[in-house]
Amino acid sequence: MAVSNDAAMNRPKTAHADENTPTAKGDTKSKGIAILEGLLGRESAPVIPLPERHKKTEPATKSDWKTRWLKNVRWRHAIISASFVGLVAVPATLASLYMAFIAADQYHSSTSFAVRSIEGGVSSDILGMFTQASGGSTVSDSYILMDYILSERMVAAADRKFKLEDVYATRGLDYFYGIGSNLPIENKLAYWRDMVNVNFDHASSIMEVTVKAFDPRRAQEIAQFIVDQSDNLVNSLSLSARNDVLRAAQDEVLAGEARLSKARVALREYRDKSQEISPEEGAKLAIQLIGSLEQQLTQLHADLATAKSQMSEDTPRIRVLKTRIESLEQQLAVERQRLGTGERTSATEDRNSPDVAGRIAQFEELETEREFAERAYTAALASLEKARIEANNRQRYLALFIEPTLSELAQYPTRLVNALLVILGLLFAWGIGVMSYYNVRDRA
Question: For residue 327, how many other CB atoms are within 10 A of its CB?
């Protein structure tokens, strides 16, 4: 605007001319150019002279128009253009060239498996064996397996077997996708998680593992190593769960066996001391003996009564009968004392040979303990067998249905996608910076 005003003020004053003259035509042309310049970037439109104030102007030269255009170029436009070149164009070009010519080819190997349990009914088809839901326990085991594959323990095992620094060493100038040397386990773990991808489908409980490497054979070997390690982990989890189920039942069996053995030893010691298999049989014999003695005693009393009716008291026969009766009565008292009837006397008491009733009570106590121990031991064995069957039915295993593949075409890194992501990211960051600048400028 200042340039236009200065130019208008510095024009020489001329006399009014007719509109049809060449000077009037030139003046009209100058006014049109001034209006167009104001629309193309001037801060305010040029002052248009009134129709009655026509002035004679000289036509502008080519050097004047070039100087005027250069003065109207803003310094911020130059800075924005330079920032676009420096922050977007150059980095995007370098990233594209790196992805196109420097980044090394990476091959992948994929494998799919699932943690399954024998618990429940067996599916009738092969597909059902791998797609049936096997309960929350196998899902939790699958998550444990995912964490194990991406853990330091797996990285350490793979490093011992394959030497990861050699397998993923830098190829050519590709320092971005290669791994360094003498790295701590934390850096190796971060690189491992970039090269090993694990996807888990919760609906089907199928786990897919993808391993990337610079050599297809190495990728396949590492994938097979992951499968083997996962199978060992699942087997150990299954064995641990089986042992947990069986441990309580085995403890019950051991306790029942010890109790039964103790009861049998006590019963054997009793038999050794009593020198009889069962005191009940001895009681039967004692009862028979007492009955026989009572029968004989009754007969002797009858004979004595008969003899007294025919003989006097001093006759030898009556004295013999009385003597036999006294002997039988004493023997009968002893036998009844051994059987447990009546009260013991000091004369008939024998502390070393208890009565039959006491022996029977002691024997019944020992026999009851033995029978109870046998029943408890039998129940513990049944529980152990049931627990073993349930543990076998709940056994977990790794169902591998896609063996580690051998890639023939390098599909990584995705060069075009990575280049586009870099370009879009740079454009997004640069656009945010430019909009932030104009926002601060407008507010100021």
Answer: 13
Tens of pLDDT, residue by residue over 202-254, are: 888 899 999 999 999 999 999 999 999 999 998 888 888 778 778 888 888 89
Edge-to-edge order in the sheet of strand 196-201: 196-201, 206-213, 107-117, 396-402
State both tokens at 312.
């006097």
Question: Could you read off the pLDDT of 392-401 as tens digits, one per residue?
Answer: 766 788 999 8
Alpha helices by DSSP H, listed for 17-84, are 22-39, 62-72, 75-84
User: For the CA atoms of the chain, what is the radius of gyration?
Assistant: 57
Quick one: how far is CA 191 from the chain centroid?
Answer: 22
Neighbours of 53 (CB within 10 A): 7
Helix axes 152-162, 216-274, angle to 10 degrees: 110
Going by C-alpha positions, the residue among 331, 340, 333 that lies closest to residue 279 is 340
What DSSP line would sit under 68-82, residue for residue?
HHHHHS-HHHHHHHH
Domain ranges of the chain: 2-73, 104-412
Q: Count the helix, strand and coil residues of the chain and give each as a percent rounded to the nearest 5.
A: 65, 10, 25
The reported pTM is 0.58
Burial of residue 264, with CB atoms counted within 10 A of its CB: 0-12 exposed, 13-18 middle, 19 or more buried: middle
Using alpha carbons, select from 50, 153, 171, 158 the residue that is nearest to residue 101: 171
The whole-angstrom distance between residue 4's C-alpha and the CA centroid of its chain comes to 78
- Pairwise CA distance, residues 330 & 357, whole Å: 20
